[in-house]
Specification:
There is one protein chain. Helices cover 37% and strands 26% of the residues. It is α/β, with parallel strands linked by helices. The protein has one domain: Rossmann fold, CATH 3.40.50.300. The site of magnesium ion (MG) has 2 residues, from helix 1.
Length: 249
């Protein structure tokens, strides 16, 4: 599904070059729910932005669904963004002037598709994410958790290969965070969606199949949940985070 090999990315500020990603290697399989964790400034958002085709990278390879991203022109990159990827942002980015349903339909409307089939898919997604009763309401009239479920439904509208999410639970209390994670689990279980989520939060990450830890621009460790209880996996994550920040006695 997604392969990242030897990814390098640096930012130039004035005359100084800051190396942020120094050879990141990772793969994500179809239907996997993966989290990326790591200290602030370790390059998580940078990694996501490279995969999203929002920023160019310096070296290495990113392959998404068999397509290499390195040499695509602007037009093809826009196509990848609109047709192969779905995005969920920390602050939801719903349009206030559109109803819940129209927000969900937006990726297709942008693509010029106003068919009945499109509307049907929008309605199905509302069912799956439990927001059918409020699909004619506006974002200002629904709760934070409902907004986030709307955002997840919208990310799935174009049947993307993968959902990319940067701190999707960053602004939410634990109950709403749980609702966001549930909607990702539903997306994976009911729609075989693949999810790649950056998070600071070990609770959110403990629901994932796998957690990739970034440190100093490379993959520091990769932890698999396997058959572990969620709580046990979270303890393991917390232990690894401690070790990563050098707190272990
Ligand atoms: N556009 C930019 N120009 C210059 N430096 C940048 C730019 N964007 C990010 N950086 C730097 O690159 C490093 C990695 O940033 P990035 O946003 O990827 O970190 P992060 O792991 O997502 O951190 P956080 O957990 O705080 O969101 C930081 O030191 C940051 O200051
Ligand atoms: Mg970030």
């Amino acid at each position: 599904m997604l392969q990242v090999k030897g990814l390098h990315k640096s930012y130039k500020v004035g005359k100084t070059t800051y190396e942020v990603l120094k050879g990141v290697d990772l793969t994500v399989a179809q239907g996997e729910f993966v989290a990326v964790m790591g200290p602030s400034g370790s390059g998580k958002t940078t990694l996501l932005n490279c995969i999203s085709c929002y920023i160019p990278f310096d070296g290495g390879q990113i392959t998404l669904g068999g397509q290499e991203l390195k040499n695509l022109n602007e037009n093809s990159l826009a196509k990848v963004r609109n047709q192969k990827l779905g995005f969920v942002f920390q602050d939801f980015m719903l349009l206030d002037g559109l109803s819940v349903l129209d927000n969900i339909l937006l990726p297709r409307i942008i693509g010029g598709d106003t068919s009945k089939a499109m509307e049907q898919r929008g309605n199905e997604l509302c069912e799956i994410f439990g927001i059918s009763q409020m699909k004619n309401k506006y974002p200002a009239e629904i709760s934070g958790g409902e907004k986030q479920r709307t955002a997840v439904a919208r990310a799935l509208m174009n049947e993307p290969l993968m959902i990319l999410a940067d701190e999707p639970t960053g602004n939410l209390d634990s109950k709403s965070s749980r609702a966001v994670i549930s909607s990702f689990e539903d997306a994976r279980n009911k729609l075989s969606a693949t999810i790649f989520m950056v998070t600071h939060d070990s609770f959110s990450a403990s629901f994932c199949d796998r957690v990739i830890m970034l440190k100093d621009g490379t993959v520091y460790r990769c932890l698999e949940k396997e058959k572990k209880e969620r709580g046990a996996f979270q303890d393991e994550l917390l232990e690894a985070i401690k070790e990563m920040s050098g707190d272990v006695a």
